[in-house]
Amino acid sequence: MELSEARAVAAAFLESMESPGEPLRLATNDEQVADVGWAWVFAWSTAQWFDTGQGRPPVGGGPIVVVKATRDSWMLGSGTPYDEQLTAYAAERGWEHVDPGAEPATKLAAWLTVQSPARPDPVTAADLATWRRREVQGWWLFEMPGFTDTMFLVGDGTVHEFHPSRTSVDEALAAAGGTG
Q1: End-to-end alpha-carbon separation of the chain, Å?
Q2: Which helix (H) or strand (E) holds 71?
Q3: What is the model's pLDDT at position 57?
Q4: SS3 assignment, position 93
Q5: C-alpha of 167 from chain center
Q6: What single DSSP character describes residue 176?
Q7: Domain boundaries in the chain?
Q8: CA 58, 59, 61, 63 torsion-angle sign
Q9: Taking the alpha carbons of 120, 125, 128, 129 in that order, is the dihedral positive or negative?
Q10: Is residue 161 over pLDDT 90?
Q11: Whether the predicted model's global pTM rises above the 0.85 cut
Q12: Comparing C-alpha atoms, which of 39, 7, 38 is closest to residue 25?
């Protein structure tokens, strides 16, 4: 299934759950769509959030998954890491799951290891499994679990640490140097 066809399936799924007072929209940037091998995974939010950056994305639902072979679609839950849900679904069906964030997680783990020389063991990508992560304008955004004020942008050759209480993601992207 091509991305454009999967986008139409995801849009129909999203339309089925929107209320008239708050229209919903898929992210239009193809860089915000993850290809996990057996499925496409689409980010979404309210139209207001995409248009103005104001308001809050709806709470409780994660990205929309469209299975390439069957056109089945569903929404990832917010209580379990997304990759864990995708891996379990693929394993139940005997499909190989590709984690699009695996390489950036490995880069961030290596960077964190260098930043913490007193730590007895190196940080690994598995240590970051509970962190929220998503692709943003060619970078991977990693959010530490729990209540913290530290996020990381991971690009091809760099890691940029920032504090969202003082710096927006857009400002951090600009400071990190634009495209990852």
Answers
A1: 28
A2: none
A3: 62
A4: helix
A5: 19
A6: H
A7: 3-93, 102-176
A8: positive
A9: negative
A10: yes
A11: no
A12: 7
